[in-house]
TrEMBL record:
The gene is ribE. Keywords: Repeat, Riboflavin biosynthesis, Transferase. InterPro entries: ATP_synth_asu-like_sf, Lumazine-bd, Lumazine-bd_dom, Riboflavin_synthase-like_b-brl. Its EC number is 2.5.1.9. It is an enzyme of class 2 (transferase). Residues 1-96, 97-193 form the Lumazine-binding domain. This is Riboflavin synthase. Catalyzes the dismutation of two molecules of 6,7-dimethyl-8-ribityllumazine, resulting in the formation of riboflavin and 5-amino-6-(D-ribitylamino)uracil. Pathway: Cofactor biosynthesis; riboflavin biosynthesis; riboflavin from 2-hydroxy-3-oxobutyl phosphate and 5-amino-6-(D-ribitylamino)uracil: step 2/2. GO terms for molecular function: riboflavin synthase activity.
C-alpha cells in the first residue's frame, strides 16, 4: 500500500530488455535507507519488488502483464522516475489509498499555466472515467492528485510548484504517456454493486440520488 506522496526522483541506470519484460536498475538514495530484498517500491506508480540492491541503486523485474499495461516499457536509460516505499504502519497518511496496481495509461494532450499552478489535461480510455469524479483523487505516475475537470475523454489535474519540481509529471509534456491508477474505493463500490442481491436496498441509483456519485 502506498500514499501517492513521492519520496524522491530516481534515475534509470540500466534496462535489460526482453520480448515482453524488463529488469530495471534504478539509482536513488532515500528509498535505500532501509531497503531489503522483497520490499515493494512504487516506480512511476507501479508496485515493483526489489530483487537486488547496492548502496546506490536497486533492481526490480517487470513481468509481461505490467510491461503491457503500464508506461514502464517506454523508459530509457537516464529516465527520471517517481519513487515511493510502501507505507509504514506508523507513518502519516498524506495522500490517498494507492495500491500500485495501475489501471491503464493516459496521454497528456493539453497544458496551461494559471498563476503558480500548471494544469495538465490527460486523455484516457473512457472505461476509466467512470471511476473519476470532480475533486476526487487520482494517481498519475504514482503521484496523488486531485481532479478538477472531467470530459467524455479527458480529466484535468493541477500541479503545485512542489509537485512540478519534485515529480516526473512536472517534467512531462504533450504526447507523453503516464500511468493511471483510479481511486480503489470507487472500484470496490462498483464490484459490490455488481454482486448485490435483490433484497439489498443499496443501488447505484440510490447512491447517485443521495449525492455519493456524480450524475
Amino acid at each position: 500500500m502506498f500514499t501517492g506522496i513521492i519520496e524522491e526522483l530516481g534515475t534509470v541506470r540500466e534496462i535489460r530488455n526482453h520480448a515482453s519484460s524488463l529488469r530495471l536498475t534504478i539509482s536513488c538514495k532515500k528509498v535505500l535507507s532501509d531497503v531489503n530484498i522483497g520490499d515493494s517500491i512504487a516506480v512511476n506508480g507501479v508496485c515493483l519488488t526489489v530483487n537486488a540492491y547496492t548502496s546506490a541503486d536497486f533492481s526490480a523485474d517487470v513481468i509481461p502483464e505490467t510491461f503491457h499495461s503500464t508506461g514502464l516499457r517506454y523508459l530509457d536509460k537516464g529516465s527520471s522516475v517517481n519513487l515511493e516505499r510502501a507505507m509504514a504502519a506508523n507513518g502519516r497518511f498524506g495522500g490517498h489509498f494507492v495500491s500500485g496496481h495501475v489501471d491503464g495509461t493516459g496521454t497528456i494532450v493539453g497544458e496551461k499555466r494559471l498563476s503558480n499552478a500548471i494544469y495538465k489535461v490527460i486523455e484516457v480510455d473512457p472505461s476509466l472515467l467512470k471511476y473519476m469524479m470532480y475533486k476526487g483523487s487520482i494517481t498519475v505516475d504514482g503521484t496523488s492528485l486531485t481532479i478538477f475537470e472531467i470530459t467524455d475523454r479527458t480529466f484535468t489535474i493541477s500541479l503545485i510548484p512542489t509537485t512540478v519540481n519534485d515529480s516526473v509529471i512536472g517534467m512531462k509534456g504533450r504526447g507523453e504517456t503516464v500511468n493511471i491508477e483510479c481511486d480503489m474505493l470507487a472500484k470496490y463500490m462498483e464490484r459490490l454493486m455488481e454482486h448485490k442481491t435483490p433484497k439489498q436496498g443499496l443501488t447505484m441509483e440510490t447512491l447517485a440520488s443521495n449525492g455519493f456519485l456524480d450524475s
